[in-house]
Amino acid sequence: MLDWSAIQFGLIDNGVLALGMIFGVEWGDYLLPKRFKSKAGGAVMGGFIGNLVSDAVAGLAIGLHFTIGVTVGCIIPATLLPFVIKRANSNKPLRIREMISNA
């Protein structure tokens, strides 16, 4: 049987993520440096912020120290955001085999 509290958690967690992406598309011009401005870049940034907020709020159910740890853990991958946004803005198809063979 499905656990209703788990369903609620999933709805809230991914709902906040989706809202972050929607707002990011609209607010990307204000959130990003000029060279990264685009709808895709805004969606990436909004998704990142939405995920950070939803994970931090979910962590509050466990405790403040856990929430701080989750928040720091969400911020560390932010160093990859310029690469993700650059990729999202490119028109080239992603070729996994080429990426692996060139590594």
Overview of this structure, please?
The chain is mostly helical. It has one domain. Helices cover 75% and strands 0% of the residues. The protein is built from 5 helices and no strands. It has helices spanning 4-31, 39-59, 64-75, 81-89, 96-102. α2 (39-59) packs antiparallel against α3 (64-75) and α2 packs antiparallel against α4 (81-89). The radius of gyration is 16 Å and the shape is globular.
Quick take:
The protein has 103 residues and is mostly helical.
Layout of strands and helices, then pairs:
Blueprint lengths: L3 H28 L7 H21 L4 H12 L5 H9 L6 H7 L1
* Strands, total number: 0
Structural class: mainly alpha
Strand fraction equals under 5%
From the spread of the alpha carbons, the general shape counts as: globular
Helix content: over 70%
Order of helices and strands: HHHHH
Question: What's the alpha carbon Rg, rounded to whole Å?
Answer: 16 Å
Key phrases:
103 residues; mainly alpha; 5 helices
